[in-house]
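Q: What does the assembly look like in three dimensions?
Context provided by user:
Components: two
Sequences:
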Amino acid sequence: MVLLIPKSLEEGEGLPEAEAETATGIENPSGISFQKKLIAFIVSFSVFLLLWQLVANESGNSLIVAGPLPVFQSLVNLLQNHIPLIARGAETADSAILETLEVIVLGFALSVVVGIPIGIAAGLYRSVEGVVEPWVSVVYSIPIVALVPVIYYGIGASFTADVLIAFLFSVFTIIINTQNGVRYMSNSLAEVGRTYGATSWQFITKIVVPASTPDMVTGMRIAVGRAILGAVLAEALIGETGLGGLMMIFQATFSTSYMMAAVVLIAIMGILVLQVPKILEHRLFKWKETERLARM
Amino acid sequence: MQSQESPSELLSSEPILRVEGVAKSFPKRQSGGKEEIIKVLEDVNFELKGGSFTSIIGPSGCGKTTLLRIVDGLLKPDAGRVIFNGEVVTTPPTRMGFVFQQFGLLPWRSVLKNVEFGLELRGTDPEERKEIAQKYIDIVGLRGYENNYVHEISAGMQQRVGLARALSIDPDVLLMDEPFASIDMQTREILQRQLLQIVKASVPKTTLFVTHNVDEAVYLSDEILLLGTHPAKVREVVKVELPPKRWTYDLRSQQEYTRLRQKIWKFLEKEIMERGGFGSFDPQEP
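A: Here is the predicted structure of the complete assembly.
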């Protein structure tokens, strides 16, 4: 909330952390913004750990909710490939991470390759929009989880099925965002293309794609998250492979702290994977720099 | 109507572009939900002589921009035709350059890449197009800004990029749609002078310039087409017979300049009063 208040209105009050930071007189603005973010993160993370501990104390049963410390211990064990005896036979953590990562990357890549052309076509042509839009609404409103058994019976419990589900989870986000980017592109840019004699292909590659790249990347950012969700879900529900599978095995064997450690691993993976579109955004959109909101 | 008039001695007598009986209507939705057909242009006729600078002036909203878009082949006229270099215009011709009111620059490209745009679409070899683009960047006075993004330079500079882009494809006719309308007064005067120097001396061009600014029209033009409203039609062609190389002397202090300015403003005032919904309001004569 505080972030949305223009600087002029906020003179002299604002976040105490922010005040302290500017008071240190650091000249480098990116250094300041990084420190602000770091402090904000540390605060929110501490609050989270505290709440977690409170909930764990309240439940009083480490089989239902394990506290942060046992989960951290289990995470360290997991990463050293120490697995509780009862869950013996489960995959080692590193191979599970690798497998889940593969599902995410492939599912997401497929979404990009399929979703962007469809999104562009739907943005440019009413007829394509007419075909795509109802399906997008349908898939958005029904739980895709419901499709998991269908896919399971269709192609069996396989790596392909996992990838397909990760793809289904993420592709529509990419289609919708790309379509929006194209749809709300300024018509004057289109006219520049026509005036200077762009062919249809040049129009798409030299005007439409660059003009809507910001929306495409926004779509990709959300889609990565959904691909992770889809991958873990598919692994948990069919075949019990990867991190999703590991999670299920630990749950079935009452190794609650390990199960939660697997969830933490998934979260860490999510944070790391989500950095990719951010880096992309930063590199691609230097030209958008001044059009952005000035933040505190 | 203008064919009977003798061309100015400065210009070649061969028309490079001819607009014949162009008409255009647009459907407009009324408040009741009914659609009404609004006639924007009716029987518009004029021609451009090679090397001339012609302005189209008329009250705002009279259809000047629509006319220019038809000339460029961006819009199809309901009736009539545009003949450019002996051929009927149906799509934007490769030898016409267009300068947009809102600049129409591609924000993800640098100045250099924006100027190269037209050549790039034509498949000009990268080395060559860079050379050509650089030449026009120099002509419009933007050397040193080649690698800046559009948002990093001022509005006046942005429009100079727009001009360089239009010139770089070596057009036979340069179309300009109120190019300086969104630029501040002081910068505008300098840009007008630069434009005149460019299209009359550095790289001679036939220019068709749309404006609603009387001073601008008189300062720049050899001929001014006065467009009436509802529907727009060429009511009169005003010849501006002021000495050439107008950037070398103080044109605005010339008697002829003042006379033309008044004449055109009278016309515009009458058009706006009569047809612009000002009713019976009767302005005092000065």
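Follow-up: The interface with chain A takes residues 72, 74, 91-92, 94, 96, 98, 100, 102, 104, 106-109, 117-118, 120-122, 149-152, 165, 169 of chain B (CB under 8 Å).
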